[in-house]
Amino acid sequence: MSLVRLQVRVLGVVQGVGFRPFVHRLAREHDLTGWVLNDCNGVTIEVEAHRAGLLHFLTRLQHEAPPAAWIHAIDHRFLPARGFTSFEIRPSQDVGKSRVWVLPDLATCPACRDDISDPGNRRHNYAFTNCTNCGPRFTIIEGMPYDRPKTSMRDFSMCPDCAHEYQTPVDRRFHAQPNACPVCGPRLEFVDREGREVDGDPLLIAREWILEGRILGVKGLGGYHLVVDATNEAAVLELRKRKQRPFKPFALMYPDLDALSRHVGVPAFARPLLVSSQAPILLLGRTATGNEEVASAVAPDSPCFGVFIAYTPLHQLLLQGLNGPLVATSANLSEQPMLYDDDTAMEHLPQWCDGILSHNRRIVRPADDSVLQVIERPDPRPQLLRRARGYAPLPILTPHELPCILALGGQMNSTFALSRGREIILSQHLGNLGSYEAQLSYREVLRDFLDLHELQPERVVHDMHPDYFTTSLADELSDRWQVPAIKVQHHHAHLAACALENELEGDVLGFCFDGTGYGPDGTIWGGEVLLGSARGYGRVASLRQFHLPGGDAAVRQGWRVAIALLHEVFEGELPTRLPLFDLLDQEEVRVVARMLERGVNAPATTSMGRLFDGVAALLGISLENTHQAQSPQLLEYAAWRHGTEADAFELPLISSRLDFGPMLRELTERHNAGEDRDLLAARFHHTLIEAAVVLIGNHANLPAVLTGGVFCNRYLTEGILVRAAEEGLQVHAHAQLPPTDGSLSAGQLWVAAQSEG
Questions:
Q1: Least buried of 108, 145, 205, 252, by fewest C-beta within 10 Å?
Q2: Helix or strand run (H / E) with residue 461
Q3: Does the pTM exceed 0.85?
Q4: 102-186 has which fold?
Q5: Residues 148/149/151/155 CA torsion (nearest 10 deg)
Q6: Is the domain covering 188-359 a CATH 3.20.14.10 domain?
Q7: Does residue 420 carry a pLDDT above 50?
Q8: Cα separation, 63 vs 69, whole angstroms
């Protein structure tokens, strides 16, 4: 039998995951000759042997790839042999436009954790230990193909021992680009708030300061965190004061799954998520021990903690010898971008922290922590609420090729999306764009993405809202690049994103419930039931319209919405015997009532998010939002306290409007009569659940999708999924894209792409 040559091109997540060393090992095991290299498309391989051996090699290539690899496609062909005499890893080829998938950062693998904890290992207690299976990727890459000279690790030359590992095929650090050790790699430093270096071991000093109740800034993978002892009530309260974050829950970081399981209940299906290479923050219910040991100021009134396992050696080492978990929250104020640049961090961190644990490895781009919750009923499944570290910038695949389109997303929970072939590449979570600093950061990350992926968009897509930053940016880019700017209605984009994720190409019934979306009629939409696809939509139903006295002030102060709802339902005669009115300044109530009577500064809305605000205030559960969705979250928690069973109020569909009048009248009467408000909160949720199921049943021939920020509410989402399953109806929710505006850019892009067809 004669020798033949097999040429293989592998596309997907195949750079920075140990793929070339894996190919090298397979080739040696099969006695193949040839070569492998990284190029601008992924990995290219040429090997020679008898055909049977090459086919076996190809099968193993597909089925035994490294854990962090994700193969999108393998193209292969057989060619005449060239007479290779050995197998080698060739230098990367930097020719042509990049089609490589950029890999997210990967949490520390078990083998590297063992190295760090082994006193006999040369990386014992080394904060930057990594290998081909773990460590920084997305936040250190400066260009593709992925090689050390194109990362921020180019600042560090490998010592002989590290170079030997890097060049040894059987070593797990073979071609690990961030490879380093205490001799040659990045180093820690500890400075006080004045910027003066503190003598001693930086990690020991950091632990001592934490145990003393001080607040530290810690430079991690994708930016700086503020950390504090989560068991120290006074320290957590001081962090809230300095960060101006009075209520929003903080995340908790643990050294391992055993420690984490003391404070939250971990369902069996959630365990792999916590220890995965993504290592996201996961929202889980507290245990009694968690309530006792964790400071109450960590997550006031919440039945859950947001928890994650330390995903870098630095965080792992920091937790050693501490009394419990650490609060770890991004170092920024509300509406401000996450700090990741050292100079900017050193300018701003002293206002929040007492000391700073930093290092000299540059962060090329920011990446916040990803957040997931677990939808438990009727079938357990994870749901992303914030898509960032560990997930971005992996693409979403589409059914067919797309032109190069840039979609800019919205104003809140912002992301942008770029299309390349069958890929929609979604940026990491970039936060809210209300400040100049956040807008500047958005521009920088966008410029970085375009350069990294070497893409030039043929059109730009944006939301219909005329006052969004992304709308003005779209006009600017359209003029600069001389390409069309395309407007996409907010809730149409939501519908399209959920349909795309769930691979639904025909018409769907879309429940698009959120706080704010600019409607084609110029009013604020947000309680919409749409029928359509990415190609177009119609409005089947919406929430009954009401008004927002004070405009944006009503978004912050839910009691204003409560007054507006009561004014609407009781036709101007406010039921002032309600307990709510005892909590309010009567002069402010009169001012708001006059706004509503005169129609002054009281824009019309159908917002479901604002309805949640108003009901939370009406029941005295929460009068204002100090952070996004605070009141709806507290209303949901009240429903959970009651339980999953409750009767619904009446919510009739009148002239395509879901009329909340009967529901609010009965809810008000029962609240006045002293009925348990947790029960009333549950009944409010069940009213929406039953109304949704009726509408889905009226369109039983179509799949339904649940999208928009209101569907971060697990009680509501699970309730609809459970009831729909009981009725044999097909309903889909988000999983890998957030229900929030974090998925808006993907939906905008999909709509714009379909409109071309």
A1: 205
A2: strand 459-463
A3: yes
A4: DHBP synthase (3.90.870)
A5: 100
A6: no
A7: yes
A8: 11
